[in-house]
Amino acid sequence: MGLLDRLFGVDKKVQKLETQVKALQGQNLGMIINATTSIYPSWQTIENTISYTTIDDVYSVISLLADTAARIPMEGYEIINEPSMKRYKKMGSQSIQGKYYRTKAVQDLPDGDKFVQFLKSISYAEKVKYYSLLYMNGELFLYKEVVELGPNRGKVYLHVLDSSKVTVMISEDFPQRVIGYKYFDMGYDGTFRPDEIIHVKYFNPTITNGMQWRGLSPLQVLTKRLTRLNSAMDVSVGQMQNGGVPGIVYEKSDYAIESLGQRKNDFAAYLRNAANKGAPYFAAGEMGYLALGLSNADLDIAELANIDFTKICNAYKVPEVLLNNQDSSTYNNVNTALKMLYTNTILPNIYLMRDAIEASILPMYNDGVKRMIDIDISEIPALQEDMKAQADALNAMWWITPNEKRDIQMFEELDMPGMDEIIIDGGKQLLIDLSIPPVEDVTMPS
Fold first, then answer.
1. pTM value?
2. Helices (DSSP H) in 92-177: which residue ranges?
3. How confident is the model at residue 199 (pLDDT cuts 50, 70, 90)?
């Protein structure tokens, strides 16, 4: 719904929907919304933000993922060949066959295309915000504002909604579906239609309170571990600042309380005198000492912190070698870890975002052009196949034309003779063409 429609309450889609609902069920849209099931946000959503802003391990993991994912651009393309597109999706973007079918399936959209302009309007900073919220909360709500008047008619703007203030409205009839999103923030209290919201979320198997309609945050899975990590940090900081009470000094013999207090003051004055540094302190009578608590070494706080950090990386599928783990930071390990990072974590989240944008934005264009979003991974060294190995493989594939080989390796085609013809090595020919005379049966003399 456009801004003017919200101000003046004019929306033809809502009016049409109300008419249909009245005819079928005898009630208006407002009554339907009131009769739905409300799925409220988890109380841990705010805790997730606090963890991100106060726990360095959580921040380092999420910021690495968000910054890395935001650097990979989404490009708009036109689908020109459906059979080739199906084969491209089947083969994948990294295989030689997939790259070949991609050249036949899609072509670039013009720069003036509204979908291309929409994708370009999403800045790097905005994408960092999107992915950070997705990694933090397991879900992301984007309000889709469409300009309906003026020279920018049809232009789309995305606005991030605070997921802790979004209530998902679910129908009561089967099969259940999302029929609206209620939002209250900064004095605004209203309900959005499903087509106005892009909801990106992780799978959530929790059926309590309908939470399967909300995304599952990795930080929720790590709740107990983060509690222990915070406790360990509090203990270590407390011991670094004042050490707490390390123990009790006591007199083994009868000793007046007043004299004990004087001895304490004398000992304190002795320590403050720089001239006494390294010198022994003399005291009368026999004294004892009772140690309280355990040292950092006894508690293995540092070791527990390392284990907790490893588990945080595991929950986010991040190889910890990329976050300054010196135990395994060799060149080969880092290269392998980078490939795992993109394959297991970065690209799946980008595909999740891509599918959500395609499902919400592409239906807006009714000009007969079939559009799609593809991920440009050409500038990611960790995902690039060895060019020499690929060139050797293409050289052996005589059934592919030189221009097709150039397409596969992302080079422009050449308008030259022979570049669109199949070329084979001159030294190869059919066995039947060799014209070798048959071998006669020669009988050896007896």
1. 0.72
2. 96-105, 114-121, 124-137
3. very high
